[in-house]
Amino acid sequence: MRAAQQQRRCAFATDQSTYAAMTRRTAAGEYVSPYQGLYANRTHWQTLTECERSAYMVRALHCKKPHWVFTGYSALDVQGITHSRSSHDGAVWIADHQRNAHKHNSPRTPLRRIHLPSDVGTRIIDGIPVTAGAVTVAVSIAHLPFMHALPLVDDALRKGATVEQLEECCRQLRVLTPALRTLLHCGNPKSESGGESIARAAIRLLGFAEPQLQVEFPNLRNSGHVIRVDMLWRLPDGRMIVLEFDGVQKYLDPTMAKHRDVRILVQTQGERDESILRSGVTTIVHCFYEDVVNLRVFDRLLRNAGVPWVGVPNELQGELRMALQA
């Protein structure tokens, strides 16, 4: 178990006596078994994020099944593709060239076999076989809600992919739908974080106009610097509305706060806002992740700020209904 933790993977038994011992420790609550035949120390497992847990399972399964090619959610962390924690469902996703691959999926075993063509691109990353980046993204976004799929598209575009390439990949995999096409065309490499991408997805899903991203304003307190805002709407009547997505970590995490006092951070934010307003912006909206994923709250924030509403696309109306019911 110690060696497995050092290698950042789950442990597994190589003989019957070890298997019996791991089974006993799991029954006693000392170990957990996230996947059939895989084990981890419960205390250590509880310190891991969903993304880290997924990667632990993938590394262990690669040792046991070196011929498996991982795809979808299981390949996201291996390939360093930006995604939210909700992208992980506790299952292991592998490519399968059989047309009836899905029939081998069992609710008792968290293994998802995804049918992919035999000529699909494969890469080896850190010794682990995964599908090519565009394929991994296409498989993942086909199974994710709109809001949590856009970060993957934005990340792919930042890394050099094009909307046309992703659309063609989705078409070849037979997962391209009107909603997925809209998602791909919402992609923007200027989004600097997964949180910003989720906020933009919520804006589109709620039917508001798309903003400009990363617009620069002069820093009136420091002429040698500029201030970049996350999102900006320029209205026909001359008004300008800014939305800033604030990660709460910058107030709570000392590494992100650069060890500055929270009061100083708040003061700095106020000075930044003052400079933006003096540059002609009429309204600044600050929102956190919790505001964005609560669509009713986010809708109210945007409406109160005066962000133009242009209507929900037909292909996204079903998605919006499901999101509001969640």
Descriptive key words:
10 strands, 4-stranded mixed β-sheet, 326 residues, single chain, 44% helix, two-stranded antiparallel ribbon, alpha/beta, 2 domains
* Biggest β-sheet description: 4 strands, mixed
* Structural class designation: alpha/beta
Oligomer class: single chain
Spans of 5+ residues with little confidence (pLDDT < 50)?
248-264
Mean pLDDT across all amino acids? 89
Please compute the radius of gyration using only Cα atoms: 23 Å
Number of DSSP E strands: 10
Helix and strand string, N-terminal first?
HHEEHHHEEEEHHHHHEEEHHEHHH
Number of domains: 2
Strand content: 15-25%
The helix fraction, in percent, is 40-55%
Give the helix tally: 15
Strand order of the largest sheet: 7-8-9-10
What is the first-to-last residue Cα distance?
39 Å
- The best one-word shape is elongated
Describe this structure in a few short sentences.
This is CTP synthase. The protein has 326 residues and is of the alpha/beta class.
Structure description:
This is CTP synthase. The chain is of the alpha/beta class. It folds into 2 domains: 2-191, no CATH class; 208-310, no CATH class. The protein contains 15 helices and 10 strands. Helix 6 (133-141) packs across helix 8. It is elongated, with a radius of gyration of 23 Å. The model is unreliable at 248-264 (pLDDT under 50).
